[in-house]
Structures are given as C-alpha cells and as structure tokens.
Amino acid sequence: MSFHAAAFIATSLDGYIARADGSIDWLTSRAEHAGETGYDEFLASVDTVVLGRNTYQLACGFDTWPYEGKQVEVLSTTLDPETDDRILVHRTLDALIETLNDRGAQRIYTDGAATIQTFLAAGLLNELTITTAPVLLGTGIPLFGPVPSDIPLTHNATRTLKAGFTQSDYTVVR
C-alpha cells in the first residue's frame, strides 16, 4: 500500500455518527459552536476521498458538493455506477485498492462508519481523528463495530474545542 488513509469524523458522546435514519441534525445544529476543528486543513491535505453509499448520499444533500477538487471513490454494492460523474463506484474493497494504487493516491480521507470499519478490519487505516459532541443519542449508527481482533492505537493528542466538544487523534499501530 503506497497510500496513507485517515478518518476525520464526529460522534456523539455515546459513539454514534448518525441517528438510525442517517440524520446528523444533532451535529449540524451544534457544530458551528465547536470553533476551529482542523477539518478544512485536513481536507486540504488529502487527494482522494473514500465514502460508503450512505455517506455519499448524505453529502449529495448538502448545499454544495463538499469534495470539490478531490477524487471521490464510493464503496458500494448497490449504488448505480452511472449515478454521478463526480464519483467512481467500486463493488469490492480489492477493486477500490487497485484503483487507488493505479491512480497513485497518496493521502485518503476515509469517511462513513461502514467504510471506516472496513478499512480498520483490513488494516488499511493509518490515523483516526474523532471529534466528540456533547450529546447522547442513545441509538443510531455506531462509528465502530465488531473487529477481527484488537486494533491497538497510539493516542497522540486530545484537545478541548468550544461548546463542550473534544477532539482526539490516534495512530493505528501496525
């Protein structure tokens, strides 16, 4: 693997990235109060974005396409490959990795719970930045799921943002 994969994502305090219906209203209603999160700098540092279908569909609902100027790859077994000329759809992780390597992708932003879980389980994720919102959802789409074995992490830093948000950075130990 010649690429470096990173996740930069927000969760509720109880570890959910979205409500069960996929809504992130709990985050969008609070995020502006968090102050500078480093997201813009992070996004500027990547050349490729890898999303799952749900995250792609959520991004399509934003006022502007959030990945302008980036190569966007979507890992999905159901999304129509002809759905959007801004993206390339991959049916399997192997096909995605082949494309990333063929394209010479350097720094990849991995987004969405299923995609992050897939990259973690396959040993492809290098770093993880989690911004925690001060809210409990009780149910929803969890950031993490079952893993094939322990995935050790090195904690690099935690910082306090505004409005009760915190952000922690980890390196995945190989």
Q: Please, could you describe this protein's structure?
A:
The protein has helices at 25-28, 39-44, 53-60, 93-103, 113-121, and strands spanning 4-12, 16-18, 48-52, 71-75, 87-90, 107-111, 127-133, 141-142, 153-160, 166-172. The protein is of the alpha/beta class. Helix 3 links the parallel strand 3 and strand 4. It starts with a strand and ends with a strand. The model has no long low-confidence stretch (mean pLDDT 95).
Q: Indicate the proportion of strand residues.
A: 25-35%
Helix count equals 5
Largest sheet: 8 strands, mixed
Alpha-carbon Rg, integer: 16 Å
Query: Could you give the order of strands across the largest sheet?
Result: 5-4-3-6-1-7-10-9
Measured distance between first and last alpha carbons: 13 Å
Mean pLDDT: 95
Can you write the helix and strand succession as a string? EEHHEHEEHEHEEEE
Uncertain residue segments: none
Task: Using the alpha-carbon principal axes, give the shape.
Answer: globular
Give a count of the beta strands, DSSP E runs of length 2 or more.
10
